[in-house]
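Escalated from tier 1: BIS(adenosine)-5'-pentaphosphate holo job.
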Amino acid sequence: MRLVLLGPPGVGKGTQARMVAEALGIPTVGTGDMLRDAFALGTPLGKEADGYMKRGALVPDAVVIGIVEERLRRPDAAGGFLLDGFPRTLEQGTVLDRILAQSGGKVDRAVYFTAPRETIVERLSGRRTCGDCRAAYHVKFDPPLAEGVCGKCGGRLIQRSDDVPATILQRLEVYERQTAPLAAEYRRRGILEEVPAEGAMTGIFEDVMRRLRRTAG
Ligand code: AP5
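Tier 2 regenerated the structure:
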């Protein structure tokens, strides 16, 4: 299955991406993590992207499309994948269609997570992320067993530089203007599943899987 996750920053896409991709046995392609990895490695692309990310703006399409195209060409993506954070503009959506069409494919399903703004702001403000494996925790909703330490790999937990109040508001504004129109496009195609992302993470995951199985079969 070629699956796209959509939704505002902090709604829980990354959290669900890990669970859903594991359940479906497909790789997650997360553009935010790929860009942060590039920055951590000190590549020119990572350095360029970091400036945009720190101020809550989108990284230019040409940069992001290049890394996604390269990633989707790898053998493990041949049988399907889950895209988290891409496409993020109508232009990226069009390019994705073109890339997939080259091998006779298309986006099969899009899951669109929604939550009230207060929920989103609270989730982003309390998020802590592993600097090594990128796992996300939350100081209130999903705290690590040992403070400041990732329970999955032992890495150090940090607060992302874009999870500060002014940048959170900027990201939400950018999302409404540039990314939200994609949901309407996938709805028009009849492949959109709108999932309320409130409540327990496991409950949301089960809701997603139920919907994917139902309409797939
Ligand atoms: P990216 O990393 O993709 O960030 P985002 O879309 O803003 O999404 P987040 O990672 O902030 O949130 P999420 O929805 O994954 O939530 P999470 O699961 O972590 O992008 C960052 C930047 O990179 C962009 O601003 C842009 O600059 C650039 N970029 C990336 N892709 C791009 C593209 N295609 N084009 C151009 N630029 C691009 O959850 C959040 C918190 O909530 C966590 O603490 C989690 O533990 C908690 N939580 C999750 N679910 C629940 C729940 N059910 N109950 C309680 N807490 C929960």
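Residues 15 and 136 are 7 Å apart (CA to CA).
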